[in-house]
Amino acid sequence: MRFKEFVGQGGRQGPMRRVMVLIGCAAALGMVPSAALATPGSGVTGMVLATGTSAETLKVKTKGPVDVVVRTITIAPGGSTGWHHHTGQLIAVVQQGTLTRTLQNCSVERTTAGQSFIEPSGAEHRHIGRNLGSTPVVLYVTYMLPAGSPLSVDSDAPACAAGK
After folding, report:
1. How far apart are CA 144 and CA 90, in angstroms?
2. Alpha-helix runs per DSSP H in the chain
3. CB count, 10 Å around CB of 118?
4. 108 Cβ partners below 8 Å, 6+ apart?
5. Non-local CB neighbours of 84 within 8 Å, separated by 6+ positions
6. Which of 5-9, 41-45, 77-81, 159-163 bottoms out in mean pLDDT, i.e. has the lowest?
7. What percent of the chain has pLDDT over 90?
């Protein structure tokens, strides 16, 4: 191919040729790694402790300053948390075992390893967690509590659970 055939008649580029050249340049720029502009990290490590999938959409609401606490909880086979409630929301992931929770209305929820759940705040959401299995239940729990609040508050069993 001769030069005149490449660039067009009379040695001039036609409009289509210019568009093709511009597209080619844009494509080449798109291949330049954007990480080259980022500040590289150093001295940082992380470890995933647990992952869990929620069956529903998670909604987190807070009012005022919040203490965020991340905690590992282990419940031995046959163990129980006792009836309690929280003054803020919790997000929990079951890392091992099966947690059986009885809720305020005496409904029962079982959450197995790899699943997550929310515990809402307030005395009207009292509950008890039990390990009815033969291996320890291990939970990773993130508490979002009003500043200065305890992790949990002991509660009486609801009438339906007390046999009334």
Report:
1. 6
2. 3-7, 15-30
3. 16
4. 100, 101, 102
5. 126, 127, 128, 152, 153, 154, 155
6. 5-9
7. 57
